[in-house]
Amino acid sequence: MLEYSYPLFRPPAEADNIIIQATYGCSYNNCTFCSMYKTKSFEVRAIEDVFRDVDTLAYSYPDARRVFLADGDALALDTDYLLKLLSYLKHSFVKLGRVSLYASAQNILNKSSKELEELKKNGLNLIYYGVETGSDTVLKKITKGVNQSEIIESLNKASDAGLKISATVILGMGGTKYSDEHIKESSEIINATRVNYLSTLQLGLEEDAKEKFYKHFDDFEMLSDTQLLQEQKKFIELLNPTNKIIFRSNHASNALHLAGNLPREKGRLIEELDHALSVGEMAFVPRVFRGF
Fold first, then answer.
1. Is the pLDDT score of 292 beyond 70?
2. Domain 12-289 has what CATH class?
């Protein structure tokens, strides 16, 4: 019987898919707003143990078509390891059509373009990438470990290799003081790259993250739901992608759920936001139904 190491996280889109833990924890694990892997140390699992998990899951779900590689950023694994795992997955799940994982700017920049192309050729299709913010000021305050130019470079490097990208921006990450800067410079990242999927969620801080977060971001003030939706509107207004982007704001944290294709449905999304802002809290998702 397969036993996962908890806590275990995956993107909402991977809820019904096979999850394989190739690593435990996050190789960086220093973002002040994130509590996901604070109880874990980063560890690369022995590939033989991972193969056994694959065997167990392939026996139970032989027709599975999608696999997500956990934990926090499996792209931190050596390319040889990933290639062996991708080959084993393809052999084990005969109908396999997609393999995805979390990735960071550091992961991508640490690999050569040839390595990324080889991973794509051997079955890695999609990466989930937390942009969070495009503001260098805010990136430094949340100790993200990269700047805006490195985020743009890494995203373009991944898409040039043929990898699809699902990117996330966090509304409210700049607080009230840096709100305009956060939104403007986050939109610049999306406009300068070719992400395939884009989602926004609202900032939420778990109790165990607050002390470290406020230590580095001592002038932070949380935005209200109304201010967050005003940020959402500004963000969409500033987006002028060169490719089609599937946009969602349906994370459990969001005060308003939106869905559409950019740039085609940009006007409709703004109209929905204008309506919600004019109605006020009655149009928002009740807080009792929200989570992080």
1. no
2. alpha beta
